[in-house]
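Protein details
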Amino acid sequence: MKYLKITLIVFAIAIFFYSCGTKCDGVACTTSPPVMILDFRDKAGRDLLNPTTPFHYDTLRMKLLNASGLISFIKQGTVAPNKERIKMVLNWSMGENITYLKLTDNDQDTIFTNYQKTTAGCCANYQLQLFKYNTKTYTDSVANRYFTINK
């Protein structure tokens, strides 16, 4: 009888700890990769990724020279703000990054970023701490990761 009571107590304690778990049990965390959106404009404010703009950048020839990130483009009319523009989308990794963006054979730019991993609730998240394009630091649009680059 004594062994039965001990067995039942151990079993009850095991069930108690198993059923309590943590507040994050069963929470599916899908942290998307950090994405930045770049909007390239000329001095007249025209979209430099649009083929109808004089001296536009050929999006098929643009590439990242030293990064594993991908370049993709969003067509006109799909993402606010500035739905009328074509936008470049860049994925980045955590930490400090220096990347070289080749826009044309003669135009190469440098992008500095710093993403920090944070935890809010049960899931990890990434926050952009710094965005610098060539020598210009962008502080007003870091939170929404949407940058207008004037060339």
In short: Residues 28-150 form one domain. The chain has one domain: 28-150. The radius of gyration is 24 Å.
